[in-house]
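Repro case for the chain-ordering regression, as requested:
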Amino acid sequence: MDFALHESGEAFRSEVRVFLAEHLTQDVRERVRRTGTVHDWRFHRALGAKGWIGAGWPVEFGGQGRGPWELRIFYEECARADAPTDGLSMTLMVANTLRVAGTEVQQREILPRVLAGEVVICLGYSEPDTGSDVAAARLSAIRDGDDWILNGQKVFTSLAHEAQYVFLLTRTNADAPKHRGLTMFLVPMDTPGIDVEPLWTLGAPGRTNRTFYTDVRVPDAARVGDVDGGWDVMTAALTFERGGTLGAVRALEETVAWARTARRPDGSAVIDDPLVRRRLARVAIENEVAALLSHRTTWTAAEGHLPGVEGSMAKLFSSESVQRCTADLLDLMGTEGLLTQDQPDAPAAGAVEAAHRKAAVARIYGGTSEVLRSIVAERGLGLPRTRAAR
Amino acid sequence: MDLAPSAEQQARALAVAELLAKHASPERVRAAEPLGFDGPLWQHVSARNWPDLDALLDLALVAEEMGRHLAPAPFVEVAVSRRLLRAAGVDVGVGDATITTLALHDSSSGVARLVPAGAVADAVVALRHGELVVVPIHGARPGAPVSNLGCLPIADCPVDGSDATQLMGADRAGAAHTRAVDEWRVLTASALVGLAAGALDLAVNHVTHRHQFGVPVGSFQAVQHRLADLATDLEGARLLARKAAWSADQRASDAPALAAMAFVWAAGAAHRVTTDSLHFHGGYGYTLENDIQLSFRRAKAWALVLDDPERELSRLGDTLYAVVG
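-- result from build under test --
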């Protein structure tokens, strides 16, 4: 057993830190904060220029062929720096799927632009009536000669207002069992008939979207995978999604830095209070557990296994933990913890207040905690299934 | 990073499990109560040199198995105190069945209170007035077992007699004792991980086979989801205990913090796992004839032998964040 990351990984970590220090400017942070859009084109293109959008891709696909550990380090550093990488991670999920299931034309036309940081792809899965039960999607695609006509609505289409494409889950067969009547399309966002409407979230601020599709005509060439074979394409994409995140690492660092300098009315430093130190220690433990579960996921993948249960545990723990820990860090700041980022005297510049808001969604996207618990219970512990097999 | 035990470690874990399946069955664990010591079992364990393994990680992996079987043997105390004795230059025989233990707290009062394995030890190592001493326990053991929640062989040990031998002077005694207690934290965390894993297995097995309302109890999400959380907490505890042991072997600067983290997290996880595992047994879980009560009592007791885990958390807070100077 060996818990050390490889030395080459540490060298790469330094390189990532230098890059982030240079490109994650106040200007970029300010824009993200103002727009609620966790994506920045200049930053994204800089990642592309560095070759890091395709960091983990094989060299023959234009990538750098970096291993899972270097990728882990890359994402850890981005998370720690609070880099706006929503566009990156969503686009990669789809691009990874295109590498496996896309047509030759799709691969040739789109993947190089993805790697260059010129293209962002948003996810059109959820609908007003379908969330975790994603296979119940109803947005209809009806064949019309060599084309398809799409009608329906999606929700939580994050970055739809920035993306060049939407990866759309559609219903092509209403009579088949629900998992067997779905088809995926990659649709350019400038196709006539697509409307985007902002949907504001608890983020500080945060923006996602509702998207509407009215008689949207797309050629059959926009289809990804087989007709009625969309579920297999979807599940392939989801395996690229789960993996666990850091715990409340940044929130803890910000709180510790604040507690070392902030003074109580009696003149003592906040960190001189044993109660404060004990609560910080509890968060430090949870962060360590989150990191270890997440590393176990990476290790399982690096060993050539599919980390389904491991990834579910890691994501379950880290997202629940971030919610718990940011709430506790906010509490230990006392009443001042309420102050938001725009207040000059907000503790830690309001970073913990913002993190606390954002934490609420971590337990929802990318597999809700309830879905993940069922995976751990039924696949991990081998408990009898709750639902009848479909 | 490599999270798989080596072939040697796996083979040893298997050997420990096989021995304990034979010599630490639930019947033998019950028979060893209330003292919490099984002499023939200890002969087997010590004769195989397991308490004398060099690496703390190797000891930790054995401790996990010992914990899983609730083995009534002072493995952790003997391993930790022998390491300390050897560090002091004492020639400790490998494979020896002699039981030494460690008083976890400062014993300057003259009596080390409720020392783990104190009721069965031949000698106790203690920190007294800044120096480290070893004190033999002659003839009759300190007395009748002290009745306690975990059926642990804890006992008060006098350490102020003239038969105390100094092991280390004030120049290095404190640091050496601190490190030994950190090692105890890590190995106890490992034992708690094994204990909780065994309890979770019992719960999973029970809810898989127990039917209510015409379906297995384990098919209810209310049950499934809590078990999933427990399994996740436990997996974290296992990784953290192993990492803490590995870091200590590497002499890493964060080893003391990781020892405290591993102990606090394992104590909490083992408590949650055993409490809920008992609960999922329904009324049977509350009976003495059900084995889950054996884990339930020990989960709390093994950790509390050191101190209130919340106080341990305070200590960790001081280690990590105390303002120096």
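Ordering looks correct now. Chain A touches chain B through 50 residues (CB under 8 Å).
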